[in-house]
């Protein structure tokens, strides 16, 4: 084993042919069967259940469940609320993530390690547990309200949970890494000489940033927006624990239909609607990303 | 001019440190809370006691939940490692039509809202007699964990020099022998970190478990979820601190294997 590892440190030029099955298999696809277990597993336990809810949402090819979703004021309001919360979370995530990613991309190695650990540590800790922490920090007798009252800034505790504020704080905390990582990946590759060139040409820092750096970082902005927005749409745990009755999101409606109303058809239709929204958001941001790539090319040329 | 650039730098770094603090501090507060001597949860905590850890390990419910979580997480990592490594081996080398679509299918559980999956599995698994069973939870968690294993193993395979496999083949080794003695040892970091990702995915998963688990198979996150909705108790914080310790170990091993800048 160690001899092999020692060899790998002196790489030979890569062969033109693919890999070992080219030499063992008579045919090129001889080892394709290795894909079969994973693919059939997902077909049974992932694709089939999704097909099932699509079928269940159209009993006797009637659209009644969908009709109810788009005509009932409750459902329409919850869907609107879900979009508003997701958009707000996305914007706040991007505003916090942009400077953070910038710092990571341009800091010294030691600072980078500290910032990366701060970013990835919460990534590893259970989402439920982090929501629990916010529940404690934000409640009326929690640290934040106590501190603000102790400083004499407020007389009565601010309502920070059981409302949208709590939901947004909790969700931003969970989704922030999903905005920072794509931004960092893009910023790391931005050529620093472009900013130097801009300043040699007489532009101040602000102007160079707006005209050179920011356009180059747009693909990261779009990718971060895509991830935070689409992941927000399906959130269940955080709004259920930190939100009030008026902050219900689609996921909670689905859960209630299943566990309380036992209305599987309605739950299926809602789940399909959520799936379609998620897919549509992906499509939309995918378009933006390709525009971003064009803008990037233009900026480099200009 | 000098002054304004200094002010900008100070404001920038204060902001960035603030964000770092916002990320880290709430993640860890379960640890100090778990040592409080008060009967209710409070932060900052008072005094120091280990009695809440004692309470957790004395409780049959928590002990069973930990055992269930452990069984499900280990089985999930084993199953997703076997399925995912085999798939990644083919995906990294073979060229065939529809490969991009297939890769998309294999990774799509990552972007599917978990609540949709939970409801869908809940309905289907009930009919198959899998709801409330270990098999059902392991299957569901494997669906979520598989993309992590595939991505991680694919990344290692990219760095592998195919000449080594050719050499092994040229010396007369069978494909299986080459895999075991050449390929696997070289991609082991990717396989191990994929396995850890899979373990943590299952260990922390709550939404699917709420729908699929019953009293005998409920996991630690399901217990915490029930506790949070009923009452807050420092014992829950102690469980939280244990979870943080486990996550920290997983994180350390993974980054030891795969440095931050790769």
CATH topology of the largest domain in chain A: MetI-like fold
Secondary structure: number of strands of chain B: 0
- What is the average of the pLDDT values of chain B? 89
Structural class of chain B: mainly alpha
Radius of gyration of chain B: 23 Å
Secondary-structure element order of chain A, N to C: HHHHHHHHHHHHHH
Report on the architecture of this protein.
- The complex is a heterodimer of chains A (302) and B (262).
- By secondary structure, chain A is an all-alpha fold.
- Chain A has 2 domains: 38 residues, no CATH class; 242 residues, MetI-like fold.
- In chain A, helix 3 crosses helix 14 and helix 7 crosses helix 9.
- Chain A starts with a helix and ends with a helix.
- Chain B has a single domain, classed as MetI-like (MetI-like fold).
- Chain B is built from 12 helices and no strands.
- In chain B, helix 4 crosses helix 7 and helix 4 packs across helix 11.
- Classes of the chains: A mainly alpha (302), B mainly alpha (262).
- At the A-B interface, helix 1, helix 2, helix 3, helix 5 and helix 6 of A face helix 1, helix 4, helix 5, helix 6 and helix 7 of B.
Helix and strand layout, with pairings?
The complex is a heterodimer of chains A (302) and B (262).
Chain A: H1 2-8, H2 20-24, H3 36-57, H4 64-71, H5 73-106, H6 109-124, H7 127-138, H8 143-150, H9 164-188, H10 192-200, H11 205-233, H12 237-242, H13 250-259, H14 264-301
Helix pairs in contact in A: 3-14, 4-5, 5-6, 5-9, 5-11, 6-9, 7-9, 9-11, 10-11, 11-14, 13-14
Chain B: H1 2-28, H2 30-33, H3 51-58, H4 60-93, H5 99-107, H6 114-128, H7 134-158, H8 162-170, H9 175-204, H10 207-212, H11 220-230, H12 234-257
What would a concise description of this structure say?
The complex is a heterodimer of chains A (302) and B (262). Chain A is mostly helical and 302 residues long.
